[in-house]
Design a protein that fits this description.
The chain is of the alpha/beta class. The protein folds into two domains: about 200 residues, Alpha-Beta Complex (Spore Coat Polysaccharide Biosynthesis Protein SpsA, Chain A); about 110 residues, no CATH class. About 50% of the residues lie in helices and about 15% in strands. Strands 3-2-1-4-7-6-8-5 form an eight-stranded mixed β-sheet, sandwiched between helices. The longest helix has 28 residues.
């Protein structure tokens, strides 16, 4: 056994089955790699998919269900600790690994050194993408993502794996990357290790729901403030704070009866809001439904994003804006 694949999943049986289908086409012999699927909590649908794949006998498969939902970081930890091989490849249940994905990692590793590898993520998007598609496409330019990476088991053991405080799929991969770099473990890019990451259909207003992730930005910033500012976000979202300040100041002026100042505050808010909406619409589809969604969600996002940022700052006891 040369390499183990760990896939966290939860209630996405059709995506998982497509991912396993892609893995069954690897250019390695079946006995050279194993696939460990870890369900992030009780999941009857995933259990049925795994039973079907056991019967096919096309992969060396193991299924590990967690007794309660803990997040993908915890699921990955459970998986790599159970792995047999000395090199652990990570991907997600919504990816389609290329046939040379695993062999590309193995060809770059000497079999012993504590190393990590990051591959290439291809995100197919439409000619006129939505804002959500464009955001998902950033996976293709990220330095290190758990949708496509491999880490020597000895390095994972030295780091005690993923930080399970990152309980949703956000920043746990950057945290692992930063800790690898801090431990001076080489992180090598392997362009031939390719996975395709299709963009799933998103519900209306998904960008508002996504703002909860800002809470975990605070945790990553607490652990690695310099690296966070250098590699993730160079400066706070001052435009968000400006929009919130203008609305609050307008409310105070309205209560005081200073209507001229209310008008000035609202005009300033509209200018900053207009710039924000324009940036979100740049290089995206201008379908009427999408434009309306961008306008409505752009009004709400600053308030929701800053709430979760400040909540994260309070929760993790760090000054984070």
């Amino acid at each position: 056994m040369k390499i183990s694949v760990v896939i966290p999943t939860y209630r996405r049986p059709h995506l998982l089955s497509a991912c396993l289908e892609a893995l069954s086409g690897q250019d390695l012999d079946k006995d050279e790699f194993e696939v460990i699927v870890v369900s992030d909590g009780p999941d009857v649908a995933t259990r049925k998919v795994m039973d079907t794949w056991y019967q096919k006998r096309r992969l060396d498969l193991r299924y590990i269900p967690l007794n309660r939902k803990k997040g993908p970081a915890a699921a990955r930890n459970k998986g790599w600790k159970a792995a047999v091989a000395p090199l652990i490849a990570f991907t997600d249940d919504d990816t389609l690994p290329d046939s040379r994905w695993l062999s590309s990692f193995l060809n770059a590793w000497d079999g012993h050194q504590a190393m990590a590898f990051t591959g290439k993520v291809v995100v197919p998007v439409s000619k006129d993408p939505t804002d959500y598609e464009r955001n998902t496409a950033r996976l293709a330019t990220a330095d290190f993502v758990t949708a496509n990476c491999a880490v020597a088991k000895v390095a994972l053991a030295a780091l005690h794996g993923f930080d399970e405080r990152f309980s949703i799929a956000w920043r746990e991969d950057s945290d692992l990357e930063f800790r690898l770099l801090a431990l001076k473990v080489p992180v090598v890019k392997i362009p031939d290790a390719v996975v395709v990451h299709p963009v799933r259909k998103a519900e209306w207003g998904v960008s508002i729901k996504e703002q909860k992730k800002n809470m975990y930005n605070a945790l990553l910033y607490k652990k690695f403030p310099d690296m966070y500012r250098r590699k993730i976000q160079r400066r706070p979202a001052w435009n968000y704070y400006a929009m919130i300040a203008m609305i609050l100041l307008a409310a105070v002026c309205f209560a005081a009866g200073w209507m001229v100042l209310v008008t000035l505050c609202m005009l300033c808010w509209l200018v900053v809001l207009g710039i924000f909406i324009s940036k979100r619409l740049a290089d995206t589809t201008h379908r009427r439904s999408h434009v309306v969604e961008m306008i409505i969600t752009s009004v709400a996002i600053p308030f929701v994003a800053i709430y979760w940022s400040l909540y994260g700052a309070w929760r993790y006891k760090v000054f984070f804006l």
